[in-house]
Amino acid sequence: MKKTILLLLFIGTLLSVKAQSVTVRFSTNMGNIDVMLYDETPKHRDMFVKAVKKGWYKNAQFNRVIANFVSQGGELDDTILNREKQHPELGVKRFPAEIKASLFHKKGALGAGRDDNHEKASYFTQIYFVAGKKRSDEELDAIEKKRNRKIPADQREVYKTIGGTPHLDGDYTVFGEIVSGLEVADAINAVPTDKNDVPLKSVVFNLSIIRK
After folding, report:
1. H or E, element range at 98
2. What would the pLDDT profile of 187-208 be if each residue is shown by its tens digit?
3. Comparing C-alpha atoms, which of 184, 47, 196, 23 is closest to residue 127?
4. How far is CA 167 from CA 12, 128, 135, 201, in A?
5. pTM greater than 0.85
6. Where is the PPIase cyclophilin-type domain (predicted)?
């Protein structure tokens, strides 16, 4: 009964989002994950679609996996920052943030990675899936106090029943969510890793647009 209730809550969060125009498939060596890109973040949606079409994520890897937190894919921070350091003539390229209060870090959300730039602008070639964990009222109260930000009641309920990483809200652009294959994302987030959070066995993925 409990599992049924949680499933209904998860489906409810999906249905609460208006029908979106683009779905992207992550074809991994552990199974497929289908992700609905938000029309509420059109610039990130279009940027990501462009990246898929150009093959920027061809044979990419989930190269930083932290259990119950996130599974990060694409280029690592060090790879991007070292390239920029070695080629200053190319400049530092970031994508303007599209942070929306209604799009939050619930389990299954797709976010854009970034460095610590003040504009909170995104990398072009790094994404992450939110794994997170269920949060208690006490934990959510503490996050609200620390960040001086009220968590809306509906988001609070999701964090309590489904899980996520609420302390990332407001700092990173969330631009999509998993609509199929959440169990695959969970399996990826549970793979053994080394001390640097790198999977001991490569988790490779390719991307394709399956609906537009």
Report:
1. none
2. 999 999 999 999 999 999 999 9
3. 47
4. 23, 15, 11, 29
5. yes
6. 27-205
